[in-house]
Design a protein that fits this description.
Elements: H1 3-13, H2 27-40, E1 45-46, E2 62-63, H3 80-86, H4 96-113, H5 133-144, H6 148-166, E3 176-178, E4 181-182, H7 191-197, E5 213-214, H8 216-235, H9 239-260, E6 261-262, E7 267-268, E8 271-272, E9 277-278, H10 288-292, H11 297-306, E10 311-312, E11 315-316, E12 340-341, H12 343-355, H13 359-380, E13 383-384, E14 387-388, E15 405-406, H14 408-422
Antiparallel strand pairs: 1-2, 3-4, 5-8, 6-7, 8-9, 10-11, 12-14, 13-15
Helix pairs in contact: 1-2, 2-14, 3-14, 4-5, 5-6, 5-8, 6-8, 8-9, 12-13, 13-14
């Protein structure tokens, strides 16, 4: 029996330590689940330094989202935004080589291909994923202190990605399309594949016309790049460059507010630049600007009030209601929508709330999400890719691919929220 299976058996024997859902979580409540997560990482660690058929080689070991011997749907490739969220639970000395190596792998892909692809497969090179490179860089810089020379080299790669991929105006990177703002894209110029670049595959946000939309989350991420470039310039004592990046961020912030902020509804919305109007789907993408630090205190207060649109028994739903036509013949099943909740979106919202001082709201949502994850784990002995936050005892709504177990970013966000809220009680 493998070490992992022995640990799982031990966990199953301790399930009687089930928590009380109506009480604050304790370290004892989450002990078995965290042990499972700690043992799970070895199951999803891969090392492929050389190209192998469609699998691209990268220099260091990395993590894949999930592993299951029960299904033919398996992962062996490195994913862009999954990787960022998976390391959030292991920013510690024990995992320094792995975390730093994953970042090195992403940068190596950019240096080789002038894009960080959706994942390290030849057939996934036509698009990227939501850009978290500068945030990843600063996480490593702050946690492990690799030095200013390392930071300068890493930030230079991020600047190239920003300019080449996200500000590109023609094939293979035709993303900056309207008033200096960018869209999700795929080299095949297909709406559904551009939607896949968003990571939200599939979602009602774009009405299956993703190429026509300026997404609020993407442009908040690019604002974060600009402020991170300014931050790096200040570290390097280059005040002139820092001012240039501050100006770029301010221009983007002004344009985003003009096109995407809905004062009446108190939320940001994706903008259909073809029809010159905001989309009508309220989603958690609206909270990326709060996470990025680009909203005013007044906007933040409105967004906190709007949380009631998304908050349910088990956490935050991805959109505020069941999309009309979700299962109409000819439409795609939209797993990135009500009633499903996803770990990375809970994390983004929680960190945004913390950034603006809404600590009570952040803790409430974190606890709801932790309890949803923990209840499923205690019942079934595993974590899921996504959860039904409206009825947490029921399975999540399926998407265009089979629902996954494991699961990398769920495990990592669970561990990170345990560190932030269970290990540091009120």
């Amino acid at each position: 029996m493998s070490t992992f299976n022995k640990a799982k058996d031990l966990v199953n024997k301790t399930l009687q330590l089930s928590f009380r859902p109506d009480k604050e979580l304790t370290a004892v409540d989450v002990q078995a689940a965290r042990a499972y997560i700690g043992n799970y990482w070895k199951e999803v660690e891969r090392f492929h330094p050389k190209d192998d058929e469609s699998l691209l080689g990268v220099p260091k070991p990395y993590l894949v989202p999930s592993f299951s011997a029960k299904t033919g749907f398996d992962y062996n490739e490195l994913y862009y935004w999954d990787s960022y969220f998976m390391v959030q639970g292991m920013l510690d000395p024990e995992h320094e080589a792995l975390v730093s190596g994953i970042l090195e792998d992403l940068m190596a892909l950019f240096k080789r291909f002038k894009v960080i692809p959706n994942a390290s497969r030849t057939y996934l090179m036509g698009r990227s994923q939501p850009p978290f490179l500068t945030t990843f860089i600063f996480d490593v810089y702050q946690t492990y202190n690799p030095g200013e020379k390392w930071l300068k080299e890493a930030i230079e790669i991020a600047k190239q990605e920003y300019a080449t991929v996200w500000l590109g105006v023609k094939k293979p990177n035709e993303r900056q399309v309207y008033k200096g703002l960018s869209r999700y894209y795929d080299i095949n110029y297909l709406h559904d594949l551009a939607e896949a670049e968003s990571g939200w595959d599939m979602t009602p946000r774009f009405s299956r016309r993703a190429l026509n939309f300026l997404p609020i989350d993407l442009n908040a991420l690019l604002y974060k790049y600009e402020t991170d470039f300014a931050r790096a310039a200040r570290i390097f004592d280059d005040k002139r460059e820092a001012a240039r990046w501050d100006d770029a961020a301010k221009v983007r912030q002004t344009t985003v507010n003009e096109l995407m902020w809905d004062r009446i509804r108190g939320l940001f919305y994706d903008y259909n630049y073809v029809k010159k109007k905001r989309g009508n789907v309220s989603s958690l993408a609206a909270y990326f600007p709060m996470w990025a630090g680009m909203v005013s205190d007044k906007q933040a207060a409105s967004m906190v009030k709007a949380l009631r649109r998304f908050e349910n028994q088990g956490g935050l739903a991805t959109t505020d209601s069941l999309p009309v036509g979700q299962f109409v013949l000819g439409s795609m099943p939209t797993q990135w929508a009500y009633p499903n909740g996803w770990a990375p979106l809970q994390y983004i919202v929680i960190k945004g709330l913390e950034r603006y001082g809404y600590h009570t709201d952040a803790r409430r949502i974190a606890m709801k999400w932790l309890k949803t994850n923990l209840a499923w784990y205690n019942e079934h002995g595993l974590f899921l890719e996504k959860y039904n936050v409206v009825s947490p005892e029921k399975p999540p709504v399926k998407g265009v691919y089979p629902s996954q177990e494991g699961f990398g970013w769920t495990n990592a966000v669970f561990e990170r929220l345990c560190q932030d809220y269970v290990d540091r009680p009120l």
